[in-house]
Amino acid sequence: MASFRHIKITGLNRSGFDVIKAFSELDSTRKLALYDYMNGSTRTFANTVKMMWPQAKDTHCKKLERFMVQSMAANDMAANDA
Questions:
Q1: 71: how many CB neighbours lie within 10 A of its CB?
Q2: What percent of the chain is predicted at pLDDT more than 70?
Q3: H/E/C letters for each residue in the chain?
Q4: pLDDT for 1 beyond 50
Q5: Containing domain of residue 36, as a range?
Q6: Which residue in 48, 43, 13, 8 sits closest to 30, CA to CA?
Q7: What's the pTM?
Q8: Phi/psi of residue 39, nearest 5 degrees
Q9: Is 53 domain-assigned?
Q10: Residue 4's pLDDT band (boundaries 50, 70, 90)?
Q11: Cα 54 to chain center, whole Å?
Q12: How many other CB atoms are there within 10 angstroms of residue 23's CB atom?
């Protein structure tokens, strides 16, 4: 069986996996796909996050979802102010 020890895992910091950093490193297409999945089933969103980052736990999925919702809200408020 092949070893995956040589594969670099993105989004790691001293305290472990940083899902926000990993999300920020994604290309736009993948970010948009996550936004689409977030608007659907919560389970589908969590499964997609875990597929993209196998080290992600349910807590990471919830943290990323909160971050994405806050980002959308901030963008809506900025658009309304303009």
A1: 13
A2: 77
A3: CCCCCCCCCCCEECCEECHHHHHHCCCHHHHHHHHHHHCCCHHHHHHHHHHHCCCCCHHHHHHHHHHHHHHHHHHHHHHHHC
A4: no
A5: 29-81
A6: 48
A7: 0.72
A8: -80, -5
A9: yes
A10: very low
A11: 12
A12: 21
Asked, for residue 24, whether it belongs to a domain, the answer is no
The residue among 72 and 48 whose pLDDT is bigger is: 48
pLDDT in tens, 10-47: 555 555 889 999 999 999 999 999 999 988 888 999 99
Does some domain include residue 14? Answer: no
Element spanning 13, H or E: strand 12-13
Count of structural domains, the chain? 1
Within a domain: 37: yes
User: Nearest 5°: phi and psi at 17?
Assistant: -75, 130
